[in-house]
Amino acid sequence: MYIDVKNILHELNEEIELLKSKVSHEPKLISLVVEPDPSTLSYLKTQKKTTKKYGVNLEIIESHNLEEDLNYYNEDKSVDGIFVSRPLPKRYSELDIARNINPKKDVEGVSFFNIGSMYYEEELFVPCTAEAVVKIIEENTKIQGKNVVVVGRSTTVGKPVAILLLKRGRDATVTVAHSKTIDLNEITQKADILVVAIGRANYIKQNFVKEGATIIDVGINVVDGKIVGDVSSEVVEKCEVTPVPGGVGSVTSLILIRNVFRAAINNSI
Amino acid sequence: MYIDVKNILHELNEEIELLKSKVSHEPKLISLVVEPDPSTLSYLKTQKKTTKKYGVNLEIIESHNLEEDLNYYNEDKSVDGIFVSRPLPKRYSELDIARNINPKKDVEGVSFFNIGSMYYEEELFVPCTAEAVVKIIEENTKIQGKNVVVVGRSTTVGKPVAILLLKRGRDATVTVAHSKTIDLNEITQKADILVVAIGRANYIKQNFVKEGATIIDVGINVVDGKIVGDVSSEVVEKCEVTPVPGGVGSVTSLILIRNVFRAAINNSI
């Protein structure tokens, strides 16, 4: 069975409407792009449409000096939120963003301050994809005492999902596996809840999963011009699986928009 | 078999001597104590002896306003390192320290900046006990591809050990279990490396472990006036186990001292 995220989207839409009614200005979101490639620019075009629909003014700015530009927009009062487009060129690392972005404008939740808060179990802005994953799990199954396996150890999915699910009150037992894990399928087979962020099309087959598990597919891969996830389609016969597209990605987009409105409210106080 | 940490202590001693030769002043370490109880004061007395032995001037200061005092010593040029004694009274949380302590003086590695760096795989000051655990594991067994189970999800042991062992190059597959984990022994039995930080005397018995596993006992419990760990003594018949006392705690103490010298060097630049 596929997991339907429309309830979550509906709730997020309502939350955004409520926040919108409290902001007197059109929120301004800056996307810094370093050495953009065509696919990044095409992705940003889509994002421009989404933000426009929700009444957010997205400005795409080509950056030639990331630290300098972050410092500039960190201070610019007219800017509510900032994010940096990925992929980054090799001379930059995630650390350069995490260290320098103003935590109040860090709508993607990647700054030291926001990561630190999450680590100490206070959720302010947390990495959007990780929040989407946790929201979908909470909506669809009990978490306490469950064995969760997260495949992937990135700073935007694997690590934050693990930290968020370990939080007191959620109380999952969490395993983080990754590309260097030996006999991955033996580990994933034991998962009551499986979060997959590998980045390899249709990698997770039926022999990787336990009957009845809840599976969150974070993968976005292009195969023959079609977008597919990391979980192969026949897995839906055994498990509840989020669709790709239309699952985690849709929820993530709305979380980003909601965060921009939250930042705008804080900015106008 | 018990694991002998004397090689690690020897290496740390050498590292400290080397750092010492580069510092021209006696490093000053401030311990802030809020509402001290007798056991905290007695522990600090021991610490005072250790620091003295290594040529560190430890000043114990009773704090009536933690944020104010942190701000004061954060700026005080004569102070190289700061730590806050635990337990904290209920009106304070770990967040109050993490948010306010100057990362350059944060010799325990608990500040947002240092936690954030660790999260992004850059190790500056990391939580001392977690570094001790990782050092002992690295000295005694291969980590890559191993299944590590960490029992406990604290901000000073469980979470940082997990993050440090997931780091690229170390590449462990890591499970974090805790007090809400169901059938804990089924999970710990699968561990090639088991890190135990539960805080319950002799809790881990033979039926919790796999033959030949490497076990790091972080527990410090007092039973009939004697200090014992979380791992029961008969486990040494099946596994390699760190002793308590004389294991993780001894390494942790030296890491703290080393960090004070590192901070002193940075402070004198």
Automatic annotation (TrEMBL), chains A, B:
Q: What Gene Ontology terms for biological process does this UniProt record contain? A: L-histidine biosynthetic process; methionine biosynthetic process; purine nucleotide biosynthetic process; tetrahydrofolate interconversion
| Catalytic function, reaction form | (6R)-5,10-methenyltetrahydrofolate + H2O = (6R)-10-formyltetrahydrofolate + H(+); (6R)-5,10-methylene-5,6,7,8-tetrahydrofolate + NADP(+) = (6R)-5,10-methenyltetrahydrofolate + NADPH
> Where do the Tetrahydrofolate dehydrogenase/cyclohydrolase NAD(P)-binding domain residues begin and end?
127-265
In its UniProt entry, the species of origin is given as Defluviitoga tunisiensis
Annotated ranges, domain Tetrahydrofolate dehydrogenase/cyclohydrolase catalytic = 6-108
- Record function comment: Catalyzes the oxidation of 5,10-methylenetetrahydrofolate to 5,10-methenyltetrahydrofolate and then the hydrolysis of 5,10-methenyltetrahydrofolate to 10-formyltetrahydrofolate.
In this chain, NADP(+) is annotated as bound at 152-154, 220
Q: Indicate what this protein is called per its UniProt record.
A: Bifunctional protein FolD
One example of the protein's molecular function in GO is: methenyltetrahydrofolate cyclohydrolase activity
Q: Which Pfam families match?
A: THF_DHG_CYH, THF_DHG_CYH_C
Q: In which pathway does it act?
A: One-carbon metabolism; tetrahydrofolate interconversion
Subunit (UniProt): Homodimer.
Print the keywords alphabetically.
Answer: Amino-acid biosynthesis, Histidine biosynthesis, Hydrolase, Methionine biosynthesis, Multifunctional enzyme, NADP, One-carbon metabolism, Oxidoreductase, Purine biosynthesis
Annotated EC: 1.5.1.5, 3.5.4.9
InterPro entries documented for this protein: Aminoacid_DH-like_N_sf, NAD(P)-bd_dom_sf, THF_DH/CycHdrlase, THF_DH/CycHdrlase_cat_dom, THF_DH/CycHdrlase_NAD-bd_dom
Similarity comment text for this entry: Belongs to the tetrahydrofolate dehydrogenase/cyclohydrolase family.
Q: Which GO terms describe its cellular component?
A: cytosol
